[in-house]
Amino acid sequence: MENRFAGGCASCSVWVLAGGGFLGKGLDGGWELRCATCQFAAGRAAADDFDPEVIELPTEPPPGSATTVPLRVLMLTRACWSCGKDTVCLIGLYPQRPGRGYVGLFTTDNAKTMALVRRLLQQHGHAALAATVKSRYSRTMRERQLSNGCVHCDALQGNFPVHDEALGRVAASGVEGLDTLLVAACPVLKWQAVVHDNSGGVMAI
Ligand SMILES: [Zn+2]
Ligand SMILES: [Zn+2]
């Protein structure tokens, strides 16, 4: 059923104009709005030939969908394990205006999310901080990965301790337990590629 009223998508929080999306029942039994892209993605996920490693999205936002979505870039400050000084760790992305029924803080424990965070920082006047995100070798993971680095000494800030601390703060205080570095207008398809990635790095919130 099409939506009579404009609203935010329950899956991605992208703004949808009246008639531009679909209504369905949410987990709490109430009505939820889905944008055309997330409706399509949900249909694909239910199909027999669905491959969770492949993200299938349209090449441009469908009519009735906003083209950008305001996202909070979330961070926390903690002491670097190597030099002991306070350093910024980039934690993830969360919509500035979550749609009704929306759950999901997408974290930089996922390479695609970290790459999007870095790109948003580069585009919104935080090039120096963006430059601290690099591909570094993790002895824990035994592979190279895009990771937080100390702003003072460049030491890798390991995903496990950083995201363990972030999870604790979110469990105690919700999204406000983290600091918002900036709110960035993100192209919707870049955000939806993160939302519909199935390789982990999301906190229910
Ligand atoms: Zn959506
Ligand atoms: Zn350091």
Structure explained in plain terms:
With 205 residues, this protein is an alpha+beta fold. It is 24% helix and 31% strand. A 5-stranded antiparallel beta sheet has the order 11-5-6-7-12. A 3-stranded antiparallel beta sheet has the order 8-9-10. β8 (134-138) and β9 form a beta hairpin. The radius of gyration is 18 Å and the shape is elongated. The model has no long low-confidence stretch (mean pLDDT 94). The protein binds zinc ion (ZN) (2 copies). Residues 80, 82-83, 85, 87, 150, 152-153, 155 line the site of one zinc ion (ZN).
| Count of discrete alpha- or pi-helical segments spanning 4 or more residues | 5
* Proportion of residues in β-strands: 25-35%
Separation of the first and last Cα atoms: 27 Å
H/E series, N to C?
Answer: EEEEHEEEHHEEEHEHE
Hetero groups in this structure are: zinc ion
Main sheet? 5 strands, antiparallel
Shape: elongated
Mean pLDDT: 94
Low-confidence stretches: none
What structural class do helix, strand and pairing data support? Answer: alpha+beta
Number of strands: 12
Radius of gyration equals: 18 Å
Spatial order of the strands forming the largest sheet: 11-5-6-7-12
What percentage of residues falls in helices of 4 or more residues? 10-25%
Tell me which oligomeric state these chains represent.
Answer: single chain
